[in-house]
Design brief:
The chain contains 3 helices and no strands. It has 79 residues and is mostly helical.
Length: 79
């Protein structure tokens, strides 16, 4: 049987949530239902999505219209 390596670090031995990043990551992994994005982050993402949609609409409006299958439309009008 191999011996367990001695570690000076207490980070692996901590079981309670402290201010340390490793502990918080473990707590967050163990309690996904208690974790939610902050209101600031949600608002930021909503704003980004609105801007992205507005840019997309502007690109679509400024683009030149193209007719897809123009010959098929002509045949329908002739019939």
């Amino acid at each position: 049987m191999t011996r367990r390596k001695k570690s000076r670090s207490l980070a692996d031995k901590v079981t309670i949530r402290t201010g340390r990043r490793k502990d918080y990551k473990k707590w967050r992994h163990d309690n996904p239902e208690q974790v939610a994005p902050s209101r600031r982050f949600v608002a930021k993402k909503q704003q980004q999505r609105k801007l992205q949609a507005a840019r997309k609409m502007a690109r679509q409006e400024s683009g030149q219209p193209i007719s897809i299958h123009p010959d098929k439309q002509d045949k329908k009008e002739d019939s």
